[in-house]
Design goal:
single chain; alpha+beta; Alpha-Beta Plaits; four-stranded antiparallel β-sheet; two-stranded antiparallel sheet; 23% helix
Length: 97
């Protein structure tokens, strides 16, 4: 897989931006991707060194579809990537903090 196929988008929230100061970045990734694939994708895409990857599956929320019929949004996978101390930061998140 190509690195841009594994990483879908960065997660930009107040909580994820607080972690950026400690070199922790949050991404939405492919649900089938493993920690090793995510690590290689982030290192290849941004030119950084990854120390640790934590993943979690975020279950979809219940939403109304039409006249009161319940449905769900899709499940997705979130990865929290911790960079090493000597690694450079990811410039994508620089102006957000």
């Amino acid at each position: 897989m190509i690195s841009y196929d594994v990483i879908i988008r960065p997660i930009i929230t107040e909580r994820s931006m607080a972690g950026a100061a400690d070199k922790k970045y949050v991404f939405e990734v492919l649900p089938a991707a493993g920690k090793i694939e995510i690590k290689k994708a982030v290192e290849e895409a941004f030119g950084v060194k990854v120390a640790k990857v934590n993943t979690m599956t975020v279950h979809g929320k219940m939403k109304r579809m039409g006249a009161g019929r319940p449905g769900y949004t899709k499940d997705w996978k979130k990865a929290i990537v911790q960079l090493t101390e000597d690694s450079k930061t990811i410039e994508l998140f620089e102006g957000m903090v």
